[in-house]
Design goal:
Elements (H helix, E strand, L loop, with lengths): L12 E6 L4 H4 L1 H12 L6 E6 L4 H13 L3 E7 L1 H12 L7 E5 L19 E6 L6 H13 L11 E5 L6 H5 L9 H7 L11 H4 L1
Parallel strand pairs: 1-2, 1-3, 3-4, 4-5, 5-6
């Protein structure tokens, strides 16, 4: 993976991936971020970086640096990484990120809950509701017993994607379609794509 200390292209996109509590062992998010970085290896305008959930200062530094030079920002957190993403987002105010994706997020503490996301242009909340829970869902349940949930914090999300997947199925959740048929991965791909100008009305054309 490319070093986050390298000087970024001033016009581009930065994707920041934040793993959960066990990601240093499972590498669920790290592997996904590695694959994204390989995809952009020869594209100076697009980068993807991975961080553990406890590296909030490093994440904030990279995010603010890239935002201040005009790069578009995508912030993606899984499990405890979702908690970290919300805290980094608050630390960046008044700077906004283009897209925040919280993938089955779990808060770290009831006593010190993360803030509401107020400076993200678009928010995607992916919520895992598996028909057949496994051990990863038990781990999530324990985390929610101690820390609660982030559903209220993310109630203003532009899209809630409910996935019949287990908590550790990060990559699959990124590709789970929402009601509009678009997945979190689809929304990430749309960042930086030119928007089509609205067609002029007949009255304005005349």
């Amino acid at each position: 993976m490319a070093s986050v200390t390298a000087t970024p292209n001033k016009r581009g996109i930065t994707e920041l991936y934040i793993g959960g509590a066990g990601d240093t062992r499972t590498r669920l998010v790290a592997a996904y971020a590695d694959e994204r970085q390989r995809k952009f290896a020869h594209q100076a305008h697009h980068d993807a970086h991975y961080f553990p959930h406890y590296a909030s200062r490093r994440i904030h530094h990279i995010a603010r640096r890239d935002a201040e030079i005009g790069r578009k920002l995508v912030l993606i957190g899984h499990s405890w990484g979702g908690d970290t993403a919300l805290r980094v987002l608050k630390a960046m105010r008044p700077i906004s990120v283009d897209l925040l994706v919280c993938v089955d997020p779990v808060p770290k503490s009831r006593l010190n809950p993360p803030p509401m996301p107020r400076n993200a242009d678009m928010i995607i909340h992916v919520d895992a509701r598996p028909s057949y829970p496994n051990r990863s869902d038990q781990v999530k349940g324990m985390g929610q017993w101690f820390g609660g949930t982030l559903h209220r914090r993310l109630s203003a999300a532009h899209a809630l994607i409910t996935a019949d997947l287990n908590h550790f199925a990060f990559a699959q959740m990124m590709f789970a379609p929402g009601e509009d048929g678009l997945s979190a991965a689809d929304h990430v791909e749309r960042i930086g794509q030119p928007t089509r100008p609205k067609a002029a009305s007949s009255s304005s054309a005349s």
